[in-house]
Design a protein that fits this description.
It is a single chain. By secondary structure, the protein is of the alpha/beta class. The chain is 62% helix and 8% strand. It folds into two domains: 2-158, Rossmann fold, CATH 3.40.50.1240; 171-443, CHAD domain, CATH 1.40.20.10. It contains 16 helices and six strands. Helix 2 (57-66) links the parallel strand 2 and strand 3 (76-79). The termini are far apart.
C-alpha cells in the first residue's frame, strides 16, 4: 500500500502588505503550531518516506519547524510546482512520482490539498485548517494509476486535537456564573462542563498531548462536585446515580494520568543516569499505551455514551432547573462552610504517621471546596487564591505516593534491572514525600468564609 500525507502549512502572516503571497511568513501562532504538528506526524509515520514542500515561505518554514533531528536531506524536496491552489495540478504531480516511493508527505496549500483529498476519498474531511494533515492509504499500484475515490482515510488531525495549547486558545474552562441565581448558574455551569468534556474527548482519544486528559478529568470532577452539593443541600436522591457515574468516569482516567505525570517527571529524577531513564520510561510508556487503549475503548462504548446522554437530559430538564432554583446563594455558601469545617476537622486529626489515604481524601475535599467556590468566583476571590498553593502541595504529595508505588511495581517485575539505581530513586522520592507531608501538617486548617 502507498501512504500519502497532505499537510497544510501553519498559520501565516498578512502583516506586511508589500510582500507577495509567495513570500508571506508564518505568524506567531503558526510558529507555535509547529512542534505539536511534528509530533503528530511522527506518531502517524509521516516521516517514513520522502517529504515535498511548496517553495512558498510559509510552507518552507513549516517544513523546517517539523522535521525530526537528523532527517536525511536527500529525502527533502522543495518545489515551485507545489505552490498551487489547483488540486488538478497536484494530482498531475502525484501521478508523476517514482513508483519506488511508498510514503510521500506533501506540505502545501488550500484549497488544493482539501480538494485533492475530496478527489481521492469517498468520505473526505469537510475542512483542513492550517497545521492540519490528512493521511490517506492508496492501493499498491503505480502512482500514475491513482484514481478517484480509491483512497482510504487513515487519519485526519487538526491542531485542536493534537495540541491542547491550540485547542484552548478561545476556550473557557468554566461558565461565567455570579453565584446570585443558583437556578440559572448551576445548570449553566454543568452544561458548560459537559460541553467541555465532549470537546476535549477527541484530544483524549488521539493521545498526543497529556493536557487533554488532565482537563477532561477536571471537567468531570467539577461536574461531580456541583451535583453532589445540589443533592446534599436539597436532599434530592435523583442525582445519586449520575454522581456515581461521574465518579466512575473520573476513576477510569486516574491510572493513565498517573502514568503521564510519572513520564513528565522522569528525566529530572534520573539525570544523568540515561540507562535508568530508558528502562523506567520504556516500561511506563508501554503501560500508558495499554491504559490509553482501554480508555479510548470506554469512551467509544455504548454505556459511556448513554450515561452522558442521560446526564445531558437531566441537567437540561425543567425538573433539574426547579431543583437548582430551590437553592439560594446562602445555601451554597453554607455548603462551602460545611466542607471547610469538615476539612479543618480532618486536618486537626492528621498526624505525622497518618496513612497517605488521609491526605488523599483531604486533597479531594479541597477540590470540591474550590469547585463550589467557583460558582461565585468573585465573592470567593481571596480564598480561591489561597487554595491554589494548597492544591499544588497536596497534589504533589499524591503524585509522589503513586510514583513510589509504580517504582515498587517496576522493581518487582524487573528485579535484575539496575537494582541499586532503582532503590536509590525510590529513597529520594520517599524523602520528598516526607518533606511534603511536613509542609502539609504545618499549614493547618483553612480560614473561614470572607465577611
Amino acid at each position: 500500500m502507498k501512504q500519502l500525507f497532505l499537510v497544510r502549512h501553519a498559520k501565516s502572516s498578512w502583516a506586511d502588505e508589500d510582500l507577495s503571497d509567495r513570500e508571506r511568513p508564518l505568524n506567531d501562532r503558526g510558529e507555535s503550531q509547529l512542534a505539536a504538528l511534528g509530533r503528530a506526524l511522527a506518531r502517524s509515520s509521516g516521516f517514513g518516506g520522502t517529504i515535498y514542500a511548496s517553495d512558498a515561505s510559509r510552507a518552507r518554514q513549516t517544513l523546517g519547524g517539523i522535521l525530526p533531528q537528523g532527517f536525511p536531506e536527500n529525502r527533502i524536496h522543495i518545489s515551485a510546482e507545489l505552490y498551487t491552489f489547483d488540486y488538478r495540478r497536484l494530482l498531475r504531480w502525484l501521478k508523476g512520482l517514482d513508483d519506488r516511493e511508498e510514503t510521500v508527505t506533501l506540505i502545501g496549500h488550500n484549497p488544493a490539498l482539501l480538494e485533492l483529498s475530496e478527489h481521492l476519498l469517498r468520505h473526505p474531511p469537510a475542512h483542513l485548517p492550517t497545521a492540519s494533515f490528512v493521511h490517506i492509504r492508496l492501493p499498491d499500484k503505480p502512482w500514475r494509476k491513482v484514481a478517484a475515490g480509491k483512497g482510504q482515510l487513515e487519519h485526519f488531525l487538526t491542531p485542536k486535537e493534537f495540541s491542547y495549547e491550540q485547542f484552548a486558545r478561545k476556550q473557557k474552562k468554566r461558565a461565567k456564573t455570579r453565584g446570585k441565581e443558583p437556578g440559572r448558574d448551576i445548570p449553566e455551569a454543568l452544561s458548560h462542563q459537559l460541553q467541555r468534556m465532549r470537546e476535549l474527548e477527541p484530544g483524549v482519544r488521539v493521545g498526543l498531548d497529556d493536557e487533554f486528559l488532565h482537563q477532561f478529568r477536571i471537567a468531570i470532577r467539577r461536574s461531580r462536585a456541583i451535583a453532589e452539593s445540589v443533592a446534599e443541600v436539597t436532599g434530592d436522591k435523583s442525582l445519586d446515580k449520575p454522581v456515581k457515574q461521574l465518579k466512575r468516569h473520573a476513576r477510569a482516567t486516574s491510572r493513565l494520568r498517573d502514568l503521564h505525570v510519572f513520564l513528565q517527571d522522569l528525566a529530572g529524577w534520573c539525570e544523568p543516569n540515561n540507562e535508568l531513564q530508558s528502562a523506567l520510561g520504556t516500561w511506563i510508556e508501554t503501560e500508558a499505551e495499554l491504559e490509553h487503549h482501554r480508555l479510548v475503548k470506554r469512551l467509544a462504548g455504548k454505556r459511556y455514551r448513554d450515561a452522558m446522554h442521560r446526564w445531558e437530559d437531566q441537567i437540561h430538564s425543567r425538573e433539574f432547573r426547579k431543583l437548582a432554583g430551590r437553592l439560594s446563594p446562602e445555601d451554597i455558601r453554607k455548603a462551602v462552610e460545611r466542607r471547610i469545617t469538615e476539612f479543618n476537622r480532618r486536618t486537626a486529626e492528621l498526624l505525622h504517621n497518618s496513612p497517605d489515604d488521609d491526605i488523599h481524601r483531604l486533597r479531594k475535599l479541597l477540590k470540591r471546596i474550590r469547585y463550589l467556590m467557583e460558582l461565585d468566583a468573585k465573592g470567593w476571590k481571596r480564598p480561591l487564591k489561597a487554595l491554589k498553593y494548597r492544591q499544588e502541595l497536596y497534589g504533589r504529595f499524591q503524585d509522589l505516593h503513586v510514583q513510589i508505588e509504580l517504582i515498587t511495581a517496576f522493581r518487582a517485575r524487573a528485579p535484575e534491572t539496575l537494582p541499586g539505581a532503582v532503590d536509590g530513586l525510590k529513597e529520594r522520592l520517599e524523602q520528598q514525600k516526607t518533606d511534603a507531608r511536613r509542609q502539609i501538617l504545618a499549614l493547618g486548617g483553612l480560614d473561614g468564609p470572607p465577611l
